[in-house]
Amino acid sequence: MSSQILPYESVNGSTTAAPQDFQVARRMGFLPPQMPLPRLPAEWEEWEATLDAATSQRFKAAEQLAALDGPQKFVEEEKASAWRKLVDKMPVLSIDNIKGCERELRRAHLVLTFMVQFYAHTTPSTESITIPRSLTVPLLRVSRELNHAPFVTYSDHDLHNWSFKDPRGQDAIPMSDNIQSQLTLSGTTDEAGMYLVGLRMELKGAEALELLGRSTKEIEAGNNIDVDRITTHLTQTTKVIQELKSILMTTKELVRPEIFFNDIRPWLVGADADKWGRKWVWGGKEEVENSEQMLTKVSSPTAGQSPLIPTLDAYLGVEEDDSKRSFLDRVRGYMDRQHEEYLQSLRLRKKIIRSFVQGIAKERGTNAPVVVAYNAAVQAMKSLRDAHLVIVTLYIIIPSRKMAKTSEKSARVSSVDISPASGKTEDCSHEGSSGTNNEHAGEAAPMVDQVPELLKILKGFRDQTGQTCVE
Ligand code: HEM
């Protein structure tokens, strides 16, 4: 069994906590310094084999099945039902032999959470969802060991889900062209592409963390601060953030919006957002201490759970209003514990770089090179958020509006179908209706309803970033 992952570097007498104390590696940022384990040891082969059986069969989620009917739907449902029966019969495997072994625990978390998503989302819409003991109990135990949410998170599908494209490069630091994801839920290249964008941003972002970390340390140390060096670091940080934006925009080349919306998104829906309003039941949860509390963290994963952007914000001293604070307080519950502690330590510290730059602006005016360099970095963050808004519009807002329109049309057709002339008189709007068209109508409306709020929040974060410039 491999030993626990140690921080990239130890800290020598540093007065303040350093990134390395929080498993934030110099050239890897929030990615683990070693390639995530591709498979668990033989003792847990049953989990791996059962997951393989799910991924190889390319199941359709219940939400996708709503668009099918007749024999094709029946075949899909039977296929997934046979797999769920296998999972029901699986024994509850002990995790005792991987306690303290971070790589194994992370792989176990990924494998178990992916199986939970397959299990829940292939359950037909007319049935209740009960995650069997064989998944719930080890998942809760692994999550307790890791101090991590017992649900699929960005940490699972991005940070701890990569391998080298070319295995000969394994000893090197991963590069953006030699990295790929290990597992996907939908089996689409688009999902792999989506995770790749996150991985590449994490790798690139590590450079900015290093530059901002060094500047913060120098300012904090306080004697003989080299303002030119801080200026250079900020200028280099701006370049990195601009590259992050370019990487983010490659999403348009790697992920087709309709595949994201129709084939990937349904697998990533959280237990608190079931399309049919079902409450997920977790079989055997009472066997694990503190499970009720843990099972409050079951929301859909998003890259908003990455610590990267909030950490850059915190280093640059971007203001947090109540909305941003409550967003961050929610998503930090889904981050790796050490990363969350690192982010918190930065959020709680005074805005070191910003205060320093404000001091220079007072002394020498806002044309001082360090002030100009700082403002450029802040503007680059704002521009990154502009780009993210474009992505959210393309991948969520436009498709959800399209879906709502289709549903409205379908609902109109179905209301013709159920006219008294057709001899049917039931009210088809009730929950649990198995009519395909109405299933769509029930889901699309709330999603579209949430769009203005989503846009308001994201635009608010963007505007607040712009207001951080020192004037
Ligand atoms: C297809 C690609 C993407 C889509 C559809 C998407 C969608 C979203 C959505 C819906 C939210 C709001 C989350 C919530 O309310 O819980 C969000 C937030 C966020 N996302 Fe993305 N996202 C994508 C890619 C990325 C990537 C690659 C990153 C960078 C690692 C990222 C970083 C963020 C951040 C930092 C937030 C928090 C809001 C902010 O700080 O401005 N997203 N995203």
Describe this structure in words.
Helix content is 58%, strand content 2%. It starts with 44 loop residues before the first helix and ends in a 5-residue tail after the last helix. The protein has 471 residues and is mainly α. Mean pLDDT is 89; it is low at 1-15 and 417-446. Protoporphyrin IX containing FE binds next to helix 7, helix 12, helix 16 and helix 17. InterPro entries: Indolamine_dOase, Trp/Indoleamine_2_3_dOase-like. This is Indoleamine 2,3-dioxygenase. Pfam families: IDO.
Provide the fold topology.
Elements: H1 45-57, H2 62-65, H3 70-89, H4 102-122, E1 130-131, H5 133-146, H6 154-159, E2 162-164, E3 179-181, H7 189-221, H8 227-249, H9 251-254, H10 257-264, E4 281-282, H11 291-294, H12 308-316, H13 322-331, H14 337-348, H15 352-364, H16 369-417, H17 436-466
Parallel strand pairs: 1-4
Antiparallel strand pairs: 2-3
The structure holds protoporphyrin IX containing FE.
The overall average pLDDT, rounded, is 89
The biggest beta sheet is recorded as: 2 strands, parallel
| Strand proportion | under 5%
Rg value: 24 Å
Bound molecules: protoporphyrin IX containing FE
User: How much helicity do the residues have?
Assistant: 55-70%
H/E element sequence: HHHHEHHEEHHHHEHHHHHHH
Uncertain segments are 1-15, 417-446
Shape: globular
How many H/I helices? 17
Distance between the termini: 55 Å
